[in-house]
Structures are given as C-alpha cells and as structure tokens.
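Example record

One chain of 192 residues, shown exactly as stored in the release files.
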Amino acid sequence: MRRNRARRRLLLLMIIAVLALLFVRSEWMSRWLYPVHYRDAIVASADNYELDAHLIAAIIRVESNYKPEAVSRAGAVGIMQLMPTTALDVIKKGGFKDITVESVSEQPEAAIQVGSWYLNRLNDQFEGNMYKVIAAYNAGPSNVKDWIAKGIWDGQLETVSQVPFGETRHYIQRVIYYYNKYKELYPDIHKA
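Predicted structure tokens for this chain:
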C-alpha cells in the first residue's frame, strides 16, 4: 500500500515537472516574458532608418523595460533613455519639427523615432559594427572611438571584457541577450 502511494506521488511529481517544463518552454510563455510593446513604431523606425527592429526592441528593453515614464539617475528620459541634450541635438539635426524633448520623455513613439535616428547615425559612424553601436549608445561615441584608437577594445563581442566601463560591458551583453531572444521569438517582427 505504501509502495503504491509512493509510486503515485513520484508519477504525479514527474507529470507536474513535465507540464511545468512544457509551460516554461512554450512560445506563448516566452513571448509573455519577452514582449515587444510599440511594435508598429519600432518596425516603422527600423524600416525608416535601415535598422534591425530586434536591436531597437532590445535597447528599449534594457534601457527602460518599455516604461515611457522612466528617468535614469543620470537624467536620461523616455523608453530609449536619451539624455535631454542628446535628444535636443538629434531633434535639431534630424529635422523633427513636431517633436520636443518633453515628447521624447512622454511619448514612446517620439522616443523611438529620435532614438532610432540616433542609432542610425551611430551605425554610420561605426560602419555597421553592432557591438560598437551598442557601446556608443551607452557610453557615448567619443569614448568608443577612444577605446578603438588606443587599442583598448577592438569592437568585438568576444573581447567585450576589455571595455573599460563595467556598466557598458554589462550593457552590451544584456542588449545582445535580448537581441538574440527577440530574433528567436519574433523572426517575423515585420509582419502584423
């Protein structure tokens, strides 16, 4: 009798474990854990500025976790966490007539447009090297150019441990993690 009860408990535990594993590994669960909010705005900006929508989504996830009201300790605002001075510079250079620093901090669509324009410029500066672009988005392009010029970092993921700013090293790794996760879960991100 005790042996049967022990077998039933073991079988029940095994069934629960298998169901839990299936639940955790399900696409639905993964998409729930790794959502892409503001998808239309992300895709539109990706298309407009010749960027990878997965990269924009990953940067937003790391910067603000899709919270439009986010403000960093350093004062960066909006879901793409732009410094107000950077946002103002981008607004002027990009010719954004209807966008202000306030709208970048309050309206996700405006922040995505301005942040994507900035990413496009970084992409041009760093000749499409995604790791350098990500580092520059976090640490500033001058720092990244300095690291490259001095041979401190070669701009590769394999050597990210050489990036002198711990925050930027961690930032690159986190963005790449979410970038890969979004590519896996949303290969069709451009489709409605």
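Notes: Residues 2-25 form the longest helix (24 residues).
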